[in-house]
Amino acid sequence: MAEKKLRVLIAKPGLDGHDRGAKVICRSLRDAGFEVIYTGLRRTPEEIVSSAIQEDVDVIGLSILSGAHNVLFPKIMDLLKKKGAGDITVIAGGVIADKDIPHLEKNGISKIFLPGSSTQDIIKWVKENVREETPK
Amino acid sequence: MKKNNPPKKDLERSFNLWKKEKYKKAMENDFYIQKEYSTVSGRKIKSVYTPLDLENFDYLKQSGFPGEFPYTRGVHPTMYRGRLWTMRQFSGFGTAEDTNKRYKYLLSHGQTGLSVAFHLPTLMGIDSDHPLAEGEIGKCGVTVDSLADMETLFNGIPLDKISTSMTINPPAAVLWAMYIAVAEKQGVSPKVISGTIQNDILKEYIAQKTFVFPPKPSMKLIVDTFEYGTKEVPRWNTISISGYHIREAGSTAAQELAFTLRDGIEYVEWSQERGLDIDEFVPRLSFFFNAHNDFFEEIAKYRAARKIWAEVMRERFGAKNPRSMWLRFHTQTSGVSLMAQQPYNNVIRVAIQALAGVLGGTQSLHTNSLDETYALPSEEAVTIALRTQQIIAHESGVINCIDPLGGSYFIEKLTSEMEKEAKDYIKKIDDMGGMVKAIELGFPQKEIADSAYWYQQAVEKKDKLIVGVNAFEMEHEPIPLFDINETVAKQQLARLKEIKKTRNNSQVRERLRDLKKAAEGDINLMPFILKCVKAYATLGEIMDSLKEVFGEYKEPITY
Hints:
The structure holds 2 protein chains of 2 kinds.
Chain A: E1 7-11, H1 20-31, E2 35-38, H2 45-54, E3 59-64, H3 69-82, E4 89-94, H4 101-106, E5 111-113, H5 119-129
Parallel strand pairs in A: 1-2, 1-3, 3-4, 4-5
Chain B: H1 8-29, H2 59-63, E1 86-87, E2 90-91, H3 96-108, E3 114-117, H4 120-123, H5 147-153, E4 164-167, H6 172-185, E5 195-197, H7 202-208, H8 215-232, E6 236-237, E7 239-242, H9 244-248, H10 253-274, H11 278-281, E8 285-291, H12 295-316, E9 329-333, H13 345-359, E10 364-366, H14 379-394, H15 409-432, H16 435-440, H17 443-460, H18 487-502, H19 505-520, H20 526-534, H21 539-550
Parallel strand pairs in B: 1-10, 2-3, 3-4, 4-5, 5-6, 7-8, 8-9, 9-10
Helix pairs in contact in B: 3-5, 6-20, 8-10, 10-12, 10-15, 12-13, 12-15, 13-14, 19-20, 19-21
């Protein structure tokens, strides 16, 4: 039986318009065999969570370079829990200060990929740490 | 001049002999350091360049003297001997008070021009009290919601003595109006103020992505600024046609050059259609390029840019005024080339990139700070960045003669190559129906995404090395970082509330109504925007009125 492809939502929360990294990650995840949905720019936490649920994704990747992550990430994590989608794995990357990481991880972000991370690192991590949901 | 070089056949023979007997033989015993000798854009570079590469080089036609058509060697006859490039550090954070302090610091330490970085809500034309502004206030630039903030920003800074560049795009007309109003309050006439608004919407759709309105109304508003500037603010650069962001988004050097110039052509065409006189508004169009890695490719890029623009203006548009043919530009060293690992290495990267900008003849320069992969520049880091420019200017000797690399076989050949590549792209976009059409078709966006992907692969395969990242890695101590906390937001929200309470609200409503009505027609919007701004209508209120008429741009989602 063919293994179901893992579904990943790459999201750009907040006003940040830097999409080079997000797009490169989308492409490399797709080339590595994942189903990738890109939200496009400037999505609210509500829009991101709604897309994630609608698209039935296994992973959400948040890309943010504007410094608004400490405010936006906890909002997203809260909403996911409220909507019963707390089992979706959430990873993040962009410009996130080391000192912010513990707080974000406590909020439920599973892994933060800092500048200099390779797409191979990300693919490897997702393959090793995310199991797709068994069919309900 | 031909007398000193042997005839071509003899030179070719000698070169081939050298290549076979000396170069290739030596390479057999040497070890390859790189798989391929190419620039960061993937352009292959030969082992050595000789007079053979400049076989049909016509000095007067291809180079000319500095300040003479086609301006390859520089737009002014004296270049840095007559006047150094402007040292103009892009800067802004927190409240207007915070940034005003930093501006005064930089000016007191030798900076010669101002450059304003606005925070994301301002860039997107929304106020600090908008729901989408949450978490973003003051983080990426200075908070400006109304004229009141602008007054604070330039408090104690004489606008008749200093020129200011403002990085702002869809709301450019509004921030420009605010600046004009602040100057007037200082008793400085719009006829005297000097500066630049970035105001380049095409590259927003292509790369920077701070767009608001769709292309047609955006172009209309931009042509309004050209028209207004020509008549009322003659010393102002009404646009900074940018390649910086296109390059940061992942393009090659040739794509940066081509798309920027073709954007320029688009602006000129749309203005011409409106009936503007080329020789009146084009002299105030300026450009903005990246100074990326690959030192020589960048220098060649700037030289090719000047030559292409001069020829395009004279031949394609029939410009008569030499000033219409001068490509004047600002340069910023590449942000994306800075690394978080071993951040002090960034000082060296910036120095080399800044040097390329200077050897390329830039009119204005921003050097990045070493800590910008993590945060906005600390005072210490931005001081080093400024000193980098000062050391280049006063210690390195590179300003002693104009276009010092002109005549180099390598540089002249590279300049020609880049010129040809850029012209091919320009023709391609012409054939598509122009830049707005090309953007609709997703063409420049795709070229950029492909180049960005290619580069990332190259780095991960170690075909391109980055010191500290995929080579020479090591642990290092964290560096002190500049922090912007949420008290900025609290302060700004309180201030905004106060403005909205104390201003004449019926006057604001009336002026916004007039603006909206004007936007529905063809009339130049600048006077209406000025009126709104002077009544302390907020940026968000003004932009909302325009959004109601112009609509909002929806970007097609691709990757």
